[in-house]
Every structure is written in structure tokens, then in C-alpha cells.
Amino acid sequence: MKYSFKTEVRGYELDSYGHVNNAVYISYTEQARWEILKNAGLLESFLNKDLLLVVTETNIRYMRELKLFDKIEIVTNIKFESPYLVFYQDINNLSDNLKSAKAIVKTVLIDKERIPQDIPQELLSLVK
Q1: Nearest Cα to 84, choosing from 127, 26, 24?
Q2: How far apart are CA 13 and CA 66, in angstroms?
Q3: Which CATH number does the domain housing residue 115 bear?
Q4: What is the band of 123 on the pLDDT scale with cuts at 50, 70, 90?
Q5: Residue 4 contacts by C-beta under 8 Å, 6 or more apart in sequence?
Q6: Chain mean position to CA 113
Q7: pLDDT of residue 3
Q8: Per residue in 88-105, pLDDT tens?
Q9: Which domain holds residue 56?
Q10: Does residue 15 have an active-site annotation?
Q11: Which among 79, 77, 84 has a CA at the least distance from the CA of 119?
Q12: Helix (H, G, I), strand (E, B) or coil at 114
């Protein structure tokens, strides 16, 4: 199942070269993941159960620069690769219809004592 999150490049995200700072790409992918959890109703459920979905690894490939006011879309596919929930994310520039970056983000679910937990069925349903 594919998920989509759209946003626009803002001025404070630019570096001295006039394009998006490399760290901001990671912020875009993170915001897309938050939106998926929120829209699926899982964010509130996790908070009520003192569970956290934490990033254990991020691999990102920068392909093309993004500039001020470019409209972008983060397309996310999720896979369960035990014990990880892995997010495959493409950052597409809608202004020129080209891929600007792609990321693979591994996450694990932990409780308030920082002990890894099994991925609950409601979260695995996002994968199908």
C-alpha cells in the first residue's frame, strides 16, 4: 500500500547554496511517517499504551536538489521485515516530476522501559 504526503519547500530549509539542506530531506520523510500513523489512528493508540516507534537506521540517497517553493510529495511503502517495520520513501519534486531522494528507514516498536515489542496487528495492517 502506498501512502502520500505533500508539502512545499520553505525558505528556512535552504542552505547557503540556495537549495534544501541535506538534513531537511530526513525531516520530510519523518513528517510523512507521522502523518501515516496519525491518519491511521495509531499515534493516539501508541501514546495511550506508552509505545514508541523509533528509528534504528536511516539510509538516504540524494539524487536532485530541491529549491524554494518546489512542491514535493513523499511516497511511502511499508514492509514488515521482522523485527523491523521498514519505510521505503521517495521524495518526488512535483515541480519537474523527478525523484529528488529516496530513503530506507528501519524502525522498531519499544515500550516505556525501552524494551522492543512485537508489532501489533493494527500496525501490520498498514503493510498490506
Answers
A1: 127
A2: 10
A3: 3.10.129.10
A4: confident
A5: 73, 74, 75, 76
A6: 24
A7: 96
A8: 999 999 999 999 999 999
A9: 2-124
A10: yes
A11: 84
A12: coil
- Specify whether the CB–CB gap between 67 and 89 falls below 8 A: no
Q: Domain total for the chain?
A: 1
Q: Which pLDDT belongs to residue 33?
A: 96
| Catalytic residue (choose from 15, 96, 111, 118) | 15
- pTM of the complete model: 0.92
Predicted pLDDT of residue 128: 62
Radius of gyration of the chain (CA): 15
Q: Which helix (H) or strand (E) holds 43?
A: helix 42-48
The predicted-structure confidence for 41-88, as pLDDT tens digits, reads as follows: 888 888 889 999 999 999 999 999 999 999 999 999 999 999 999 999
Q: Do 33 and 88 form a contact (C-beta atoms < 8 A)?
A: no
Only one residue has cell 519547500, namely 9
- DSSP string for 48-113: HTT-EEEEEEEEEEE-S--BTT-EEEEEEEEEEETTEEEEEEEEEETTTTEEEEEEEEEEEEE-TT
First CA to last CA distance, the chain: 6
